[in-house]
Write a structure and sequence with these properties.
The complex is a heterodimer. By secondary structure, chain A is α/β, with parallel strands linked by helices. In chain A, 34% of the residues lie in helices and 27% in strands. Chain A has a single domain, classed as P-loop containing nucleotide triphosphate hydrolases (Rossmann fold, 3-Layer(aba) Sandwich). In chain A, helix 3 packs across helix 4 and helix 6 runs antiparallel to helix 8. Chain A is globular and about 50 Å long. Chain A starts with a strand and ends in a 12-residue tail after the last helix. The mean pLDDT of chain A is 90. Chain B has 2 domains: 185 residues, no CATH class; 183 residues, no CATH class. Chain B is 56% helix and 18% strand. In chain B, the strands form 2 sheets. A 6-stranded mixed β-barrel of chain B has the order 4-5-10-7-9-8. In chain B, strand 4 and strand 5 form a beta hairpin. The chains are: A alpha/beta, B alpha+beta. At the A-B interface, helix 2 and helix 3 of A face helix 1, helix 10, helix 11 and helix 13 of B.
């Protein structure tokens, strides 16, 4: 399989006053298309910085980063915005949905910055919401949805542009464990059925256990890169859990 | 296009979230635009009133007065010497190509009597051309004719003020009034003209044929029976005024046998020029009022900038998210600029309505004439949009150049 992400000798320094801080120290790795990778490490390990660079929100100090065959290192602000728009789907810990805006419109947001006609935007948003199991909730606003549902809307938003990779930064951090597993089940489904490359940043080994490959960082260096022989299946885990009353739905 | 419509929708939604805040911000623009509209309206009304008054004295008007001359070292005042005659008037009309009409007049103060009523007024001895030059129309009756002038007919035309004071509301036409013990038949009444630009009542006058006035009422000038108080001259067009003045000056110097190097024995005044100065001062006042009102518009604009800066700070995370999903610098800039312009344009529209209402109230209660032109409304509209762009640009730029990482992390 071809690599969707190639990172070579990546270095990121920050300057705090006079003292340069080396956050990422000469990192190289590749991620294959269709893989499900978790990135782990304690806080301060540089995983957030790596995440920002992978997400084209930040530029490396030196080294090469190829995303889907495009060298991202020397692009300017607006070119990076376009790469994010076309190639990357983001899922955040805090969902980051627009308040007072319907689920459908939240999902359409990335398409607003393309030339997609309104009708196509609506159709694609509808399809993405169906994908995450939120059909029928298009007109709900974030305040009328539970945390898990909000995160599903966010996942639908990350899907809507047919990205090369989905980057999820602590996607289950603000949710209880059962809902967290539900989210992982959606990720696994998207990964298996649609072949979308998933990259999940987490500090929780239970969450990392659902990925195919786990990359560990410590002090700005790649510490461990292991392929999981037997990733857990989130759907099976959910079935095994004692039945719980269905997620409360706030009426609209 | 698609994006602009979307931006406007987003802007309306964002403004609706903070209704009170948006309304108060708009209030600044509303007051500014309303003040500009009302003040410029007042100024334009004053200018229009002066223009009306200038129109009322007649168009393209030049006045020739008998001048001051020196006689044996003693200088005599303007009009002291009967240097201007009815023949001069005829000569000017005949020989100056830039002159359309001339009207010689003699004038004096008289007491007019009708029955038990009497009224002190100004008598003007004129020819029928006077009516054309001064742009008079008749309220009732007829003006006297050239034949009446030649025959020194005892006919009089009354100004409205005189007619009112002698006859009240009844029509004086055909009645007989007594001026200096001479009975005059009233031929008609002039349509009122109101005040002159210098504040005189132009309707407080009685017009007689010039021949009758000199012979029967005012008494002929001893030095020259043909002498007139002044000549009113109408040029053929506004552009020909200067040419007409020059032609008259040459002709009169020749007729009066004034040697080169000596002073004129007459004075020529371009009336339009005199009153144009008044008009200019009214326009200056109008501009001044508008400028003062514009200051409040600028203050309103600063209010918009203030609120937009607050809004950008509040929505830092939203901006970060939009950047993350692909909004370019220009997209964010447009979004906040559209929001600021929407705010200022809405304020502008409401301000125009308030300004129109205010100027109507001013003209109704204060009895000032106001004039709000469509141009000033358009200008106010465009200006308020510009205020939005100008004061919205800095906050929008600030939003557009936020660092997406920090914006996303902002609490």
């Amino acid at each position: 399989m071809a690599s969707v992400i190639e990172i070579k000798n990546l270095v990121k320094d920050y300057r705090l006053g006079e003292v340069p801080v080396h956050v990422l120290k000469n990192i190289s790795f590749e991620i294959e298309r269709g893989d499900f990778v978790s990135i782990m490490g304690p806080s301060g390990s540089g995983k957030s910085t790596l995440m920002n660079i992978l997400g084209c929100l930040d530029k490396p100090t030196s080294g090469a980063y190829m995303l889907d065959g495009i060298s991202v290192g020397n692009l300017d602000r607006d070119q990076l915005a376009e790469i994010r728009n076309k190639k990357i789907g983001f899922v955040f810990q805090q969902f980051n949905l627009l308040a007072r805006t319907s689920a459908a419109e939240n999902v359409e947001l990335p398409l607003m910055y393309t030339d997609t006609p309104a009708r196509d935007r609506h159709e694609r948003a509808q399809k993405a919401l169906l994908e995450v199991g939120l059909a029928g909730r298009e007109e709900h606003q974030p305040s009328q949805l539970s945390g898990g549902q909000q995160q599903r809307v966010a996942i639908a938003r990350s899907l809507v542009n047919d990205p090369s990779i989905i980057l999820a930064d602590e996607p289950t951090g603000a949710l209880d464990s059962r809902i967290g597993i539900e989210i992982m089940a959606i990720f696994q489904k998207l990964n298996r059925e649609q072949g979308i490359t998933m990259i999940v940043v987490t500090h929780d080994p239970d969450i990392a256990a659902y990925s195919n490959r786990s990359i560990h960082f410590k002090d700005g260096r790649l510490q461990l890169d292991e392929r999981l022989a037997q990733p857990r299946d989130a759907r099976k885990d959910l079935e095994a859990l004692p039945a719980e009353e269905p997620e409360e739905i706030v009426p609209s | 296009m698609n994006k602009i419509v979307a931006s406007i929708r987003i802007a309306f939604r964002a403004l609706k979230v903070n209704r009170m805040r948006s309304a108060l911000t708009m209030l600044g623009i509303i007051i500014g635009v309303a003040a500009v509209i009302a003040m410029v309206g007042v100024g334009a009304g004053a200018t229009a009133r002066i223009q009306d008054q200038i129109q009322s004295i007649g168009s393209n008007l030049i006045i020739v007065l008998p001048g001051s001359i020196s006689s044996n070292g003693v200088r005599l005042g303007s009009g002291a010497v009967a240097s201007l005659t009815q023949d001069d008037a005829k000569a000017i009309a005949a020989e100056c190509p830039s002159v359309a009409l001339t009207a010689p007049t003699v004038r004096g103060g008289v007491q007019v009597v009708y029955g038990n009523n009497n009224w002190a007024t100004t008598v003007q001895g004129v020819t029928p051309d006077y009516m054309t030059i001064r742009d008079y129309t008749m309220l009732s009756g007829q003006f006297f004719t050239t034949q009446d002038v030649d025959a020194a007919a005892k006919m009089a035309v009354l100004g409205e003020t005189v007619a009112q004071n002698l006859f009240g509301d009844s029509d004086p036409t055909g009645q007989v009034v007594i001026v200096k013990n001479v009975p005059f038949t009233v031929a008609g009444v002039l349509t009122p003209k109101g005040q002159s630009p210098t504040g005189q009542d132009q309707d407080d006058v009685i017009l007689l044929p010039i021949s009758t006035a000199t012979q029967k009422v005012l008494g002929a000038n001893k030095a020259n029976a043909q002498a007139v108080s002044q000549l009113m001259v109408q040029a053929i067009s506004p552009e020909a005024m200067d040419q007409a003045i020059q032609e008259m000056e040459e002709l009169l110097r020749e007729r009066h046998r004034i040697l080169p190097g000596l002073e004129d024995d007459f004075t020529i005044r371009n009336l339009t020029e005199v009153f144009a100065a008044q008009e200019t001062s009214a326009q200056v006042m109008s501009i001044l009022l508008g400028a003062i009102a514009s200051v409040s518009l600028i203050v309103g604009g600063i209010g918009i900038m203030n609120i937009m800066l607050v809004s950008v700070t509040e929505r830092t995370r939203e901006i970060g998210l939009r950047q993350a999903v692909g909004a370019k610098t220009r997209d964010i800039l447009m979004q906040f600029l559209v929001e600021a312009v929407t705010l200022s344009l809405l304020g502008g529209i409401v301000g125009i309505v308030v300004g129109l209402t205010a100027s109507m109230l001013i003209s109704y209660f204060a009895n000032w004439s106001t004039l709000v032109s469509p141009l000033s409304i358009l200008l106010a509209f465009v200006f308020s949009a510009l205020v939005g762009v100008f004061f919205g640009y800095y906050p929008a730029r600030k939003a557009a150049f936020l660092d997406p990482i920090e914006a996303l992390r902002y609490e």
